[in-house]
Amino acid sequence: METDPPPGEHPWPGVIESSTDRLREALLPMRRRAQELDRPDAQPPALDLAELVDDAEASAEERAARRSDVDDWGRSERVRSVARALYDPVYRHWFRTEWDGLEHIPRTGGALLVANHAGAIPSDAPVIMHGIERELERPVYGLAENLFRSVPVVGTLWNRAGGVPAHPDNAYRLLHDDQALALVFPEGEKATGKLYADRYQLRRFGRGGFVEIAMRAGVPIIPIAVMGGEEAMPMVWKSPRIARALKLPYFPVVANQFLFGPILGYLAPLPAKFRLRVLPPITFDVEPDQPRYSRALVMEKSEAIRQQIQSALYDMLRHRRSPWFG
Amino acid sequence: MRVLITGLGTLWGSHLAQQLEERDDVEIVVGLDTSDPRVPLQRTEFVRADTSYSLLHRIVEATQIDTILHTHLVIDSTTESRRQMHESNVIGTLNLLAAAGAPGSTVRRVVVKSSTMIYGATHRDPMFFREDMHRCGPARTPVERSLLEVESFVSDFATDNPDIDVTLLRFANVFGDDLDTPLIRCLRLPLVPYVFGFDPRVQFVHQTDVVGALLYAVTHSIPGVYNVAGAGSQPWSEVCAVVGKDRWPIPPVFTGIAIDALRPLGIRIPPETIDLLRFGRVVDTTAITRSGYHCRFTSPEAVEAFAQNERLRRALGGDEPEYRYERDVEQFFRQSSAVVRPD
Q: Exposed, middle or buried, A151 (CB in 10 Å: 0-12/13-18/19+)?
């Protein structure tokens, strides 16, 4: 079926010069070569290095110059570096962040970072992303609630700063295809929507989807226990009725608002001391790229990781003298 | 190969007919449409038929067609009325598949050109749509619903006729020289619209690759569904910058009302395009690459090619002279013994 006729003249040359003609011209050398190869007595065409180099240069010139550095995930290193410059004082002087066990995060290859989530408007995501980029100089993609995406300006900035909607396929692609670091909070909004009275009580870890993704992608899970998030923006009360009206998962009243006012209160976290402990990586002894994994195994691992983070948190809290000074 | 092309009057049908004519293994090419072909054709038989292809089974039977190339799906909802679109998309495809699957049918291969618009664009979308993924929100507009219906017909047809190769290609937004799509119209406005506060990733395919991929599907046995798009993606702001246009914002709330207010100015942006300008859409193209077709243009290259062509258009001050189909002249070229044909 695959027999191309020898390239003939266009029936009306010059009448129409469209991209198909250009394609035909561009394919001419390839066709000729294919025809040469088809002849049984033909010698394989000598590899002309100079020609190949010329071709490569031509196509490199043709290759479109990009005007922005936005990658396929919508992350822009430029936006990220501005965000880092702005956030660094907050990270160092406001939260006085300290890491423990950073050596557990691999320098290459994909890994799924799993952390506890806290605060009505959580500060833990930027702290972890900023911290790892600063200490390890590796980009981190934050998988989060896709609620952001429909909010103008915020959604776009969030995406440019490395936020990716939490969709199983997105996570798999980041970890498996791109071998990137992805950060996920398996508790989701159940954790950020809890009152200060329930601080440091880890919620259910979803349905263990994150374990399944890591198994499928064949990457380790690295649990991170974050202390300080709860005190940065403690929620004292929430209104389900207003939340429903505004189509938000929860509508919080936070302690910050009594200090900084109703609007700024949502934006300004309290200067809690942040301590993060990275726990040893967890690898799974299963074949990657399976369509399904045993529910029981997934739930068991998920619960084990939750327990690990929970007990690490208790251990850290035992040694903490003050929420503000550590 | 005996090929039937629907939508011969569209850019795709015409260019495909032109390419198929050149092949020795293609015995006959029959083209259907209501409008004239857009390029000069040598031996393609042009049949002026109604868009719903009600007499198709007779043509298929009479000409012993073995390959059907269905390029005529309306995806730009501003060009046709709701009813016309339904007729040509849904009823047209129904008749086409009925003719192809009729008892004693000689058809062995069906290739359908669809659009990645079928995935929609919502805030719940994955960053890359794979062929087996479904859209995340309901289909709100008639064109989206008709595409969904068409694809379900095609997949039913493929199940019912296992001996027929059915290939469905979903193309991303196309960039080309002589093409008129809602996005291209947006980019040709003095100021390019964008939804305030949104800068979605968009992905394009060059028209060369649309023709190339369809031709590849016709000449190779690759049954299945494939996304076809250039590699990579860009934010809409970057596309506008490459084309060299400034942007103006559409409000992110009451967007529909704002767009309707522009209609007296002749600016019509369909709701599907607004969704795209809000959330964007990027598809996974692993499957088509694995099948053996490699797009010649990456998505940024397609944008660059479009930008260059726009500069040329502006420099020349208007459109290039278009080909006009003259039935008698074409008949003369095709059938007169006075025409010397190269063998």
A: middle
- Please say whether the beta carbons of B106 and B100 come within 8 A: no
**Model pTM score:** 0.83
pLDDT tens digits, one per residue of B19-29: 998 888 999 99
- Contacts of residue B342 in chain A, CB cutoff 8 Å? 8-9
For residue B108, how many other CB atoms are within 10 A of its CB? 17
- Model confidence over A222-280: pLDDT tens digits? 999 999 999 999 999 999 999 999 888 899 999 999 999 999 999 999 999 999 999 99
Top pLDDT among B89 and A6 is at: B89
3-class DSSP assignment, residue B45: strand
Query: Is A30's Cβ below 8 Å from some Cβ in B?
Result: no
Read off φ and ψ for residue B193, nearest 5 degrees: -70, 145
Residue B212: its chain A contacts at CB < 8 A? 23
CA atoms in the 13 A half-sphere facing the CB of B218: 30
Q: What are phi and psi of A156, to 5 degrees?
A: -65, -45
- Look at A150-159, B80-89, B104-113 and tell me which has the smallest mean pLDDT: B80-89
The chain-wide mean pLDDT, for chain B, equals 89
Residues A235, A277 contacting (CB under 8 angstroms): no
For this complex, say whether ipTM is above 0.90: no
Per the CB < 8 Å rule, is A68 touching B235?
Answer: yes
Is residue B301 less than 8 Å (CB to CB) from chain A?
A: yes
CB B230 within 8 A of CB B213: no
Among A258, A254, A224, CA closest to A100: A224
pLDDT over 70 at A299, yes or no: yes
CB contacts of B232 in chain A (<8 Å) are 72
Q: Within the 220-239 window of chain B, which residues sit less than 8 Å (CB to CB) from chain A?
A: 220, 232-235, 237-238
Q: Where are the alpha helices (DSSP H) in B122-202?
A: 142-160, 182-188
Question: Could you write out the DSSP letters of every residue in A278-309?
Answer: EPPPB---S-SS-S---HHHHHHHHHHHHHHH
User: How far apart, in whole angstroms, are the C-alpha atoms of residue B271 and residue A266?
Assistant: 34
Among chain A residues, CA nearest to B275: A150
Which of B40, B133, B234 shows the shortest C-beta gap to A12? B40
Helix, strand or coil, per DSSP, at residue A20: helix
What does DSSP say about strands B165-171 and B224-228: parallel, antiparallel, or unpaired?
Answer: parallel
**Residue type, position A103, single letter:** E
| CA distance to partner chain A, nearest, from residue B54 (Å) | 31
Interchain CB contact of B219 with A (< 8 Å)? yes
Asked whether B109 and B165 are in contact (CB, 8 A), the reply is: yes
